[in-house]
Amino acid sequence: MHMKNRCLLCERKEANQTGSHLTSCFIVASQFGKRGEEKTYEITADPNQDYFENKEASGIKEDYILCAGCEQRLSFVESYFSQELTNKIGESRYSENFPITEIKDNHSSKFFSCANINPIAFHLLIYSIIWRASISNNPMFSGFKLESNVEENLRFILDLYLPEYKDHNIVPKLKQWLKDLDNVPDFFTPYPYVILRTEEEDIDVSRLTEKELEEWEKRKTKNLLYFAFEDNHPYHIILNEFIILAFFNGGKIDYTKQDYFELGDKYDLEGQMNKTISSPKIGILKHEDWTRINQKIIDAVANQRINRIRRECAKSMLTQGKIPNKTEIDDCVNKRLKT
After folding, report:
1. Burial status of residue 335 (CB atoms within 10 A of its CB: 0-12, 13-18, 19 or more)
2. pLDDT of 306-317, one tens digit each?
3. Is 107 helix (H, G, I), strand (E, B) or coil?
4. What is the C-alpha R_g of the chain?
């Protein structure tokens, strides 16, 4: 039978799945909303973009890149982490599951040690997020691309270790699959990466007025989805309240050469790195640094947009035979920004 598109993960079955999430939906649920109720707003340097247009799920979904089986295999892993990580980490009643380790350095870096989380499964989750962004044709991820050999190796690892799908069902039960993972650690390739989670904003919600509470709720949903296309050693990624700094290209691990988020001098990143098959580490990022990073990205995109508008204004005036001065260009830019 002729296949219109072959699944990019298993490379065996037809890519017949529509609406595949390009990032783990449980990670971004608090940011975009529940499945089917997503609200997303794209921020780009396009001078003509409407920042207030709700893209809904179109920015984080793509059709016909996976088969139905591989979609279920990825969802299986995400469900495990939704239950064991997202709904528990940072909660006082589950603190024994996520003891906090403090690194004795000049910065008092801290991380959650996820002793109850299967490390290979954790790596698979991170790999799946980054691999999907790399193979996507969605404009949201344009420019983000792993080297071809790395992309293929991640695909191979995911296909090999994700649970088997047969006759419209995932074959192994969760406990059996996790046990199977523990039996084959020598064949797994761990790529080094750091994952950081922003600490909760230090605020007493009970003391907020109704208006302040509404503003606080809005702030919680204004996190970014960001895959840098220039920095690749490490790759810089933001997923809601998480930051991932991943090394896939070999060579010396050095956070000082590409440190767009400016974290290398503030945190012991190597001490929080996941580079072996051991208990996963999730670093704790100070809320002030989280706010600064988000604002830095927004400001950078805004400045790029303004510069593009300035060029368009100048070009328009020149085509009319007029040499514009700075004041005229500024007026033109301000008018464009207000429309």
Report:
1. exposed
2. 999 999 999 999
3. coil
4. 22
